[in-house]
Amino acid sequence: MRRFLLIIFLFLPSVGHAFPNPNDRVIDYTLQVSFNIQASKIDGIATIPIKKGEEINLDKGRLNLLYVTLNKEKIDFSRHAETIRIQPSSAGMVEIGFEGTFKSPEQAATTGVIERRGIFLTGAWYPKPAQMCHYHLTATLPQGYEAVSEAETIDKTRKDNKTIFAFHFSHPLDSITLVATDRYKKVEDRFKGVELFAYFFPEDAHLIPTYMEHTKYYLKLYETLINTFPYKRFSIVENFLPTGYSMPTYTLLGQEVLRLPFIPETSLGHEILHQWLGNLVYIDDSKGNWAEGLTAFLSDHLYAQEKGRGFEYRKGVLIDYQSYVNAKNDFPLRDFKERTDHASEAIGYGKALMVFQMLKRMVGENRFYESVRYFVNEMRFRKASWGDIQRAFEKYYPKDLTQFFNEWTKGKGLAEIFLEEAEVKPSGLRFEVTFTLSQKGKVYALDFPVALYSYRGKVENLFHLDKEKSTFKMLIDDIPERLVIDEDYDLARRLSTSEFPPVVERLIGDQSPIIVLPDSGGEVYDEIVHAFQERGARVSEPDHLNFKDLQKSSMVILGANNPIAVRLYGRVASPGGFSVLMKENPWNSRKVAGIFDARSKEEVNEAFRKIFHYGKYSLLSFDHGMNTHKKMDETSRGMKEELLKPPVVVEISTLKTLAEVMERVAGKKIVYVGENHNQFSHHVMELEIIKELHRSGKRLAIGMEMFQRPFQKVLDEYMEGKIDEREFLKGTQYFKRWGFDYNLYRPILLFARSEKIPVVALNQRQEIVDKVFRGGLDSLSEDEKALIPSRMDFSDEAYRKRLEKVFREHEDLGAENFNFFYQAQVLWDETMSESIDEFLKAHPSDHMVVLAGNGHLAYGSGIPKRTARRNGYAHAIILNDADLEKDIADYVLFPKTIPGVTSPKLMVLLKQRGGKVEIAGFPSGSNSEKAGMKVGDMILSIDHTPIRDIDDVKIDLLSRNKGKSVKVRILRKGFFGSQEIDFEVVLQ
Question: Among residues 409, 412, 244, 406, which one has the least CA distance to residue 321?
Fold first, then answer.
């Protein structure tokens, strides 16, 4: 029984086997073969005793049958048919003479080869019956050769410079194999009553002690878990071909495989376990191959479990499944026969493994192993199915398992569970947590584990879910901080978005990604383009892709400087000669982007094909084809819901004064200071920080969110004293574009002007931000796109989630969808970051204080990390009156409330119309309304100062005081014409 070796570096097709009906007779089959190595030729004679009327079908493969006789009488047969049918009219002995040539085809590892390096024969290398047989193989080989086949004993005799090998195996088999070479170094050992052999090439003989030691460990392990090793002999055989097979009594490992350092600790045990599962208990392929899943569960998975990493292994299995299996290629476990591609492997190995994990948790560990032992003992040398496994488990578990096995072996897919909501409320001296789970699609019966965490530890429970939606409750003594569903991955379920990392296999498994060509040098990536086109990908130039294209597709992005890469992720580093960086698609969490970068076509050709063996990683780099770095992104463990944040405790003795904070940030290139725009005390703190840094003698600039980039020239002229304040406010359109009382910022700007400190307008033009807010980046014209940063990073998932929370809580924001809102916010942040970067690069000796809203600075997400991406300058973040949370800032100030001077108000609502300022309404209690002014009046002047626009009103009021009277002249239209009227109004 051959079974494919689970090795990440090899992707060979496994060999299929057709088992006969259990009522078929097991026939005796005597096979004598000899070889002409130089000619790659085999000659043989097969003899089969046959009963009268019995039919035997023989697969002759590529063989040439020389004759077929019954009792020495020739039988006619078709030489061109692939299958020879023999149905004699009388009993007797069938003899078949045959020859065949097995040269070195590309598929030698699966079809067989005879060459100078050695012999490897599998499949129809002899006339192969469909029935099971007791094989009696004799092979004549040149002297010096060693040969291995399925055998518990091997007899060797020498004759005429030849060695004759006789292989004896007393149990029925569906087929046999033969391996031979004159290069083997043979070493013998023992484990209890089992003879152990190693057949290694001389250059690898130093590995024999390690393999023997691990073989004994695995035999001991599985004799404990299952039962005594079923054969008298076991061999580890090295092959010159890249194989990984397990046959009764031996495993055949290719040289490259054998040399991998992890094989003795992982895959060797997997192949040894197949001696019981698949090679002792046969597989009824017509009812599903259960052996690969159970073997993987009790080998590779078990070894990880023993090291405390079982949950990681199972999560990896679920990542594989979710990456490769889709509605088009999914099928039930009972239809799995052998691995043919990634999807079939994810089902037949991975899903089956998870089924056994759930079964083990359901019945308990002791019953699980009792059931496995019973199953193996009862089905020795017989075909077994999932139904036989069910019956074995029901012998020890007192419940009917029909529903479980029907759900998981007859149906497609995995469970899809959603944690919809969770609430916390006090319950006496404890806390009650209520949460709701729902299932999408097929509804499974699931026992799901829940962990409820507090600062003292966790409380665990097991709940049953068998409906589309159910609500559950848990109690905990301490403040519950988070709720986690299935954190150890005990359920065969689809991963939530937060658990599913962007890895290479997600891109490989995608059905129709977009290949995004670079602006230039595309020929470097020809092999990548060709490979993904074969998998159904389409090719596009970067400027042909719009938001909807990016939103619905995974992407193969060629070149770290590809416009789409920098548009979505900002600066992308290339860590090697050839690299792959996987990112989540920021517009669709179900899709990914792979950014491929190479310094030459040769680097691509040497490394690209290897990425298919590194599917579980998020970052790969190669140097001349050698892997130099690999990394998987960390994601959430289990389905997680944050409940109550733990209280933040501040040690009073560590509190700092502003002066101490300034000492610590003085050396930073950039100091970010956050504000709530309408809090006067925050602006006082900003000015104090600016003054302190200025006193230290540093060349300083002030970057301000409150001004937009097109008006930088006006700012410069005001700071240089070339224009007055009125011209400055009119020229920057301050009141139209910012709107907060100018007195909040006036002291800062006056200080900067008096000290000749440059002020940098950081913000994007409001019309562009508004347009993106309403219609996304794709709504911008080409001229508008030229005004926005070329590099923008949309990949900060934590920032995205915080903004989405704000968006959902404020339905009045007016954006068509959250994606447009998010694009506008990132555009805002990236523009301010780019403005900072451009100024500091143009003035390398300057430092900068950046004034912006707390939301643009908290956690570094808005501006600071984006600027660090551009230039790497050291920075500090100081926020005013922010929540005390981990990593929110370097320092948080809590200034006392300070009453600020604000401009008095006319208490009128104004609008611009026809070149005049019109009264549109009055707030409650307006002195202007009491004085007799009306809606529709046009304001002409205030104390004889002409008013032409709304800015004139606000600028005029800057120099006035509350409680003082002003003369307001208005123009009022009447039935008999218009008239000018003066009113005395007390400012409020």
Answer: 412
DSSP states of 654-707: G---HHHHHHHHTT-SEEEEEE-TT-HHHHHHHHHHHHHHHHTT--EEEEEEEE
Is residue 224 classed exposed, middle or buried when 0-12, 13-18 and 19+ CB atoms within 10 A define those classes? exposed
Residue 845 carries which side chain, given as an amino acid letter? S
> Could you tell me which residues come within 8 angstroms of residue 718 by beta carbon, excluding any fewer than 6 positions away?
724, 725, 727, 728, 731, 749, 753
Amino acid at position 256, single letter: E
Residue 844: Cβ-neighbour burial (10 angstroms; 0-12, 13-18, 19+): exposed
Is 137 within 8 Å of 126 (Cβ atoms)?
no
| pLDDT grade for 467, boundaries at 50, 70 and 90 | very high
User: Given pLDDT bands bounded at 50, 70 and 90, which one contains residue 563?
Assistant: very high
In 3-state terms, what secondary structure has residue 986?
strand
Q: What is the 3-state secondary structure (H, E, C) of 783-818?
A: HHHCCCCCCCECCCHHHHHHHHHHHHHCHHHCCCCH
Burial class (CB in 10 A: 0-12, 13-18, 19+), 42: buried
User: Please, are residues 545 and 568 in contact by the beta-carbon 8 Å criterion?
Assistant: no
Average pLDDT of the segment spanning 491-518: 96
The token pair that represents 37 in the structure block: 């190595």
Contacts with 49 (C-beta within 8 Å, 6 or more apart), sequence order: 27, 28, 91, 92, 93, 94
Burial of 926-941, coded b for 16+ CB within 10 Å and e otherwise, reads bbbbeeebeeebbbbb
Residue 447 to residue 462: CA distance in whole angstroms: 6
Cα–Cα distance for residue pair 360/393, rounded to 1 Å: 10
Q: Are 268 and 7 within 8 A, CB to CB?
A: no
* DSSP secondary structure letter of residue 428: T
- CATH numbers and ranges of domains, the chain: 27-201+226-238 (2.60.40.1730), 282-410 (1.10.390.10), 417-494 (2.60.40), 502-631 (no CATH), 676-893 (3.40.50.11550), 909-986 (2.30.42.10)
What are the pLDDT digits (tens) for 142-188? 999 999 999 999 999 999 999 999 999 999 999 999 999 999 999 99
Which H or E run includes 186? strand 185-191
Confidence label for 717 from pLDDT (cuts 50, 70 and 90):
very high
- Going by DSSP bridges, is the β-strand pair 847-853/92-101 parallel, antiparallel, or unpaired? unpaired
pTM: 0.86
Q: Which residues contact 410 (CB under 8 A, 6 or more apart)?
A: 332, 333, 334
**What pLDDT, in 10s, does the model give residues 827-885?**
999 999 999 999 999 999 999 999 999 999 999 999 999 999 999 999 999 999 999 98
CA distance 836 to 852: 12
Across the range 585-598, mean pLDDT stands at 95
Residue 244 has a CB neighbour count (10 Å cut-off) of 26
Q: 235, 268, 226: which is closest to 379 by C-alpha?
A: 226
CA distance 118 to 110: 15
C-beta separation of 644 from 478 below 8 A? no
**pLDDT value, residue 300:** 95
The CA distance from 630 to 792, in Å, is 25
Q: Name the token pair of 506.
A: 């997600």
Measured CA to CA, the distance from residue 705 to residue 828 in angstroms comes to 9
> Which of these, 126, 140, 171, lies nearest to 153 by C-alpha position?
171
Indicate the burial class of 507 (C-beta count within 10 angstroms; 0-12, 13-18, 19 or more).
buried
**Cα 563–chain centre separation:** 23
pLDDT at 8 over 50: no
The closest alpha carbon to 281, from 178, 423, 386, 402, belongs to 386
Query: Are the beta carbons of 321 and 353 closer than 8 angstroms?
Result: no
The span from the CA of 499 to the CA of 791, in Å, is: 28
Give the C-alpha separation, 346 to 342, whole Å: 6
CB atoms < 10 A from the CB of 924, how many?
Answer: 6
